[in-house]
């Protein structure tokens, strides 16, 4: 599969990607646990069918020391025993926040209450922002048909500035 368009070789596309990456850096540096961030990005990417982002976030999570069993089970997190209650709340919010068009009520009050039980305000700000940013990235990559398989951990570090 060949990409339709390379955003990174287009001057405006690269400028936008740099801005998005810098937003992502603020989230990365937040108090939201790195493992939760990785699980959220992977799950949203799976839902959205973004091969590039599934590749990216699986490899980054692995490089950060995430357990392979947890990565393999993230798509079936409800039927798995390897996730904490806090991670389950974040994954539920990720699914409901990603599938807004599929759920007429958006994010349920029950899911929001579970998130409030496990995360403080700064972590919630990071979590909500992370879900929005990963969905935007998924859409960018799916639209231009950016394939998975070639990502190398850290390859976008040069965008930070």
UniProtKB/TrEMBL annotation:
One family name in Pfam for this protein: CMD
GO MF term (any one): peroxiredoxin activity
All copies of domain Carboxymuconolactone decarboxylase-like, residue ranges: 17-96
Stored InterPro entries: AhpD-like, AhpD_core, CMD-like
SUPFAM superfamilies from the UniProt entry: AhpD-like (SSF69118)
Name this protein carries in UniProt: Carboxymuconolactone decarboxylase family protein
């Amino acid at each position: 599969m060949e990409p339709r368009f390379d955003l990174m070789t287009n001057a405006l596309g690269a400028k936008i990607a740099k801005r998005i990456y810098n937003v992502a850096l603020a989230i990365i540096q937040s108090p939201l646990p790195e493992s939760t961030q990785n699980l959220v990005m992977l799950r949203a990417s799976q839902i959205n069918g973004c091969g590039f982002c599934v590749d990216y976030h699986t490899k980054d999570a692995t490089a950060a020391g995430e357990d392979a069993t947890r990565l393999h089970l993230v798509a079936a997190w409800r039927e798995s025993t390897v996730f904490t209650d806090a991670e389950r709340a974040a994954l539920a919010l990720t699914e409901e926040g990603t599938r807004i068009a599929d759920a007429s009520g958006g994010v349920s009050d029950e899911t929001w209450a579970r998130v409030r039980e496990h995360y403080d305000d700064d972590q919630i700000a990071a979590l909500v922002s992370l879900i929005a940013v990963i969905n935007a990235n998924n859409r960018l990559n799916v639209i231009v048909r950016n394939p998975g398989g070639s990502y190398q951990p850290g390859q976008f570090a040069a965008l930070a500035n």
